[in-house]
Amino acid sequence: MNRNPTGGSAPAGAKVRSARSFRDIPTRARGISASVEPVSELAGWAYLLGAPRPESPRSRRLARVGGLVAVGAIVAYLWWRVTFTMPTGGWDKTAAWILVSFEALPLLGLMIRIVTLWNIDCRAPKPVSELPAGMRVAVLIPTYNEPVEVIAPTIAAACALRPAHETWVLDDGDRDWVEEMCRAYGARYVRRPVHDHAKAGNLNHTLDLMAREAADGGGDVDIIAVLDCDHVPLPTFLTATLGWFDDPDIALVQGPQTFYNSGAFDDDGVTGEQGIFFHVLMAARNHDSAGPFWCGSTSLLRLRALREVGGIATDTIVEDMHTTLGLIRAGWKTVYHSQTLAVGLAPQTPEQYLLQRTRWGLGSMQVLAKERLWAAKRWMSWRNYFEYLSGTVWWLEGVVTVAVFILPVVILLSGAQTSTAGPGVFAAVFVAMFVVRMWGVRQLFRHHLHLPTSFALRIFRIPVGFSCLWWLVTRRTLKFAVTPKAGADLRRRSRPPHIVTVLIAILFGVLLYALAGALGWVPWRATAGATVASGVWLLLAGIGLVYGAARVMAPAYATSRRNAHRVAVRAKVVIDGTEGELVDISIGGAAVRFPAGTTPTAQVVELNLPGAAPVRLTVVRTVTAPSSHDKIVSMKVVQDDWAAFHAISMWLFHTPPGAIDGIPAGVPAVAAMRRRRTARSLGVLIAEHSPAENV
To answer: Any transmembrane segments, and where (predicted)?
Structure first.
């Protein structure tokens, strides 16, 4: 499970273009600036493949200054409002104080964030090349109904990890072909007779199986690593993290969750909406009194600790966060490992996004109610208390968002004079405060905040907030809803939620009427200054609503019939002895460009990728490239050809060194993404977040 209680985005993925020269970028990042192909670049997570490191002094200074500047901007604005713009009495004064109180709401949360984000330094244990004598590690991959293109790379990559371990595939779909694939890859296949409690029940069944086998003398497992079936582990997944367990008090190691399907609905052209959560908020919690919670995947847990708390929690649909509370209550420690260790699939469409976020929100409401998180706990530090309370209550933001829209509407229509300042002066002061505040907040969040995406997705999450509020009222039984990973039958655009459409109509209707009233065209009681005081909020809200609705309906986020994400990587390949150029590749197939007259003619061909075993593919179609006479041949993997799925998976995610020009050793081919405009040059950010001795 993931959380992003600020709606931000990660600051990576841009091709390196900055005021600093390439020589100034740390050695760890050098070479990554090379373009993979004329229209591609590397995803942001590729720049975080190295070990965690301290934040640079420059980045820390900017963050602290930015936070204080943001607070100062709000305080100065509120001082100006109270001192120079308040009406003298009656309903006007009351309405003005209501509006000012509303404008002051962000202040407390921002001040707390300055404290919690004062330091986001990260550390790491020494890499582990061999397990200590007697230690047994098992990688667990729960799965349900995902297609082969989703689960094959995860299983193949998990089996190839070092040091020596076991890979268990926990199939709640009872699929014979999954068992056959596991046998081919060297993974252990597990299915259970009763499919209760979804993922939590699936994991608990395996923990019970391990306990029974240990009781029968088969040896017990010490550490389990958990990967969602669409999260493909990179070679460092175990070697970089197992060293944490040298500390006998650590029960959980959580890594960041990053996503390789660029262009997903929550993608901002960088790495996705959850960048703030994993690269700032979780990093800031890497302290004994503020340990992070389990996010479901890309994680390792001490089995003894899980058994001590009764296994995986099953009485909520967010078993990961709820289980962490049990571990903290029992005195165990949790840590965060800030390094790209695995890459997964983000929700591709608005429907998938809304389904996933609704599940997280409703599950958080269950935890809030069952654990009574609003009450202080003796077993929780003040920091954990704040993080868990704010992290659950945050899911009600949709209700707050609507209130933010409705309150200025009510005040505006009431005709109250909420400001004595002239419209031009008020607008100028407000805009200046807003711009300075946003600059400071971006600095505080280390540039991991992409405002357009943040606003658009906040609008789209409005139904989530009301679903959470309704659950708190009804306390109805919830079922675990799996986020679909397979392609759809038809390509279909999404529609914005009805409540968003209604809000757009209301806000712009009120704005138009207020404008007409200010011009004297219709009856209107408020002064021009009072109209602007409420109107600027409504205008910003209306722009955000329209932008959010437009994003939902964008063709880029329509459903797709494909089961696998295509990677825009170029490489010289050979098919049946004929040399061509790879156009793109996915787990299920590839497209290759050939000069006219050299196209292979066989229906079943053999593709030779650089550094990989030959792959047998079936030709689907051949088309002429629009800008030349070259032929582009599209091919797919032969059904149930586990060797072909394995070869492509390993080439994409555990890419052999030197296989692709422009991708340095240690960076997988799946990091290639089509070039898009990004909010900030990554080169500066890499330098800023590097150790001082490397800058």
So the answer is: 62-80, 95-116, 393-415, 421-440, 499-522, 528-550
Burial (CB < 10 A; 0-12, 13-18, 19+), residue 693, is exposed
| Of 444, 454, 479, 474, the residue nearest 401 (C-alpha) | 454
pLDDT digits 0-9 by tens, 560-575: 656 788 888 888 999 9
**CA-CA distance, 138 to 240, in Å (whole number)?**
16
Confidence at residue 483, expressed as pLDDT on a 0 to 100 scale: 65
Q: Enter the DSSP assignment of 507.
A: H
Look at residue 593 in the predicted model and tell me its pLDDT: 92
- Predicted confidence at residue 130, as pLDDT, reads 92
- One-letter amino acid at 663 equals I
CB 167 within 8 A of CB 187: yes
For the chain, what is the mean pLDDT? 84
What pLDDT digit, counting tens, does each position of 221-240 carry? 999 999 999 999 999 999 99
**Distance (Å, whole) CA 465 – CA 412:** 25
pLDDT of the residue at 131: 92
514/323 Cα distance (integer angstroms): 52
Are the C-beta atoms of residues 358 and 467 closer than 8 Å to each other?
A: yes
For residue 272, what pLDDT band results from cuts at 50, 70 and 90? low
Reduced to 3 states (helix: H, G, I; strand: E, B; else coil), residue 579 is strand
Region 604-615: what's the mean pLDDT? 92
Rg, C-alpha atoms of the chain: 27
Distance separating alpha carbons of residues 286 and 255, to the nearest angstrom? 11
The three-state secondary structure class of 494 is coil
Across the strands, what pairs with 573? 580
Do 619 and 599 form a contact (C-beta atoms < 8 A)? no
Mean pLDDT of 508-529: 82
Residue 151 to residue 474: CA distance in whole angstroms:
37
H/E segment holding residue 24? none
Distance of CA 97 to the CA centre of its chain: 38
Separation between Cα atoms, residue 527 and residue 524, nearest integer Å: 8
Element (H, E) at 583: strand 578-586
Query: Measured between alpha carbons, how far is 202 from 630 in angstroms, rounded to an integer?
Result: 50
Q: What angle do CA 173, 178, 181 make, to 5 degrees?
A: 170
Tokens of 140: 């667990």
Q: Would the CA dihedral through 484, 490, 496, 497 be positive or negative?
A: negative
> Do the Cβ atoms of 644 and 638 come closer than 8 Å?
yes
**Hey, what are 199's tokens?**
């993922």
Contact yes or no for 573/659 (Cβ under 8 A):
no
Instruction: Tell me the one-letter amino acid at 655.
Output: T
**Prior bond of 350 cis (ω within 30°):** no
* pTM reported for the whole predicted model: 0.87
Q: Find the helix packing angle between 350-370 and 319-329, rounded to 10°.
A: 30
